[in-house]
Amino acid sequence: MLQEIPLTWKPIRNRSFAGMLGQQELAYVLQHDGQTNWKWMVSGCNGTIRYDFQSAETLDDAKAAVQASVNEWFRSAGLLNTAAPG
């Protein structure tokens, strides 16, 4: 069983990325013009579409928050190993 959902990141427009699982877009990370922080959200992963963006200081922080959120949903659904990696 997996310990982490293997997301890939696809650029969708200037300073915007989609977190992908295969061909399915599960999350979005973006930076608005003139802002230094990043916004992120997970959408559709649990059967709902959400538009409540969260903030992160850096692109890497936003991607890590998306990864943790997606992993948590798959873990709570029983589709991801509960043991810590390593």
List the SSEs and their pairings:
Layout: E1 8-13, E2 16-21, E3 24-30, E4 38-42, E5 54-56, H1 59-76
Description:
- This protein has one domain (8-69).
- 21% of the residues lie in helices and 31% in strands.
- The chain is built from one helix and five strands; from the N terminus they run E-E-E-E-E-H.
- The protein has one helix at 59-76; strands at residues 8-13, 16-21, 24-30, 38-42, 54-56.
- A five-stranded antiparallel beta sheet has the order 1-2-3-4-5, covered by helices on one side.
- The radius of gyration is 13 Å and the shape is elongated.
- The mean pLDDT is 87.
Gist?
This protein has 86 residues and is α+β, with helices and mostly antiparallel strands. It contains 1 helix and 5 strands, in the order E-E-E-E-E-H.
- Helix/strand class: alpha+beta
| Count of structural domains | 1
Provide mean pLDDT, rounded.
Answer: 87
- Please state roughly what percent of the residues sit in beta strands, choosing from under 5%, 5-15%, 15-25%, 25-35%, 35-45% or over 45%: 25-35%
Number of helices: 1
Spatially, the strands of the biggest sheet line up as 1-2-3-4-5
Work out the number of β strands: 5
